[in-house]
Amino acid sequence: MIFTLPKPPSINHIYGRNGNRTYITNAxxxxxxxxxxxxxxxxxxxxxxxxxxxxxxxLYICGRGDIDNYNKALFDLFIKQGVIxxxxxxxxxxxxxxxxxxxxxxxxxxxVA
Length: 113
Fold this sequence. Notes:
By secondary structure, the protein is α+β, with helices and mostly antiparallel strands. The chain is about 25% helix and about 35% strand. β2 and β3 form a beta hairpin.
């Protein structure tokens, strides 16, 4: 299964901290809503995958960004939307960062195998 979603904000822009409390920022909530909607359209099984999975991620970004700054948001989204039950099921992870010229070309493609 291959899914195409909007590029997530970096982990530092999705989650905020107030003392010991962690919360989802407005930017994070906006991405979760949009990406969750698109993931629901693309995911046809409607039941969570329960076996071990591999994630192959192609991250199309404009500008700078750490390659590992986006996967937590993606894993949380796949759990929240019922594609997988838990990120402990992920036994293999491959992430490729691909530079694009314009922000409107940014996206992420995730293959779950």
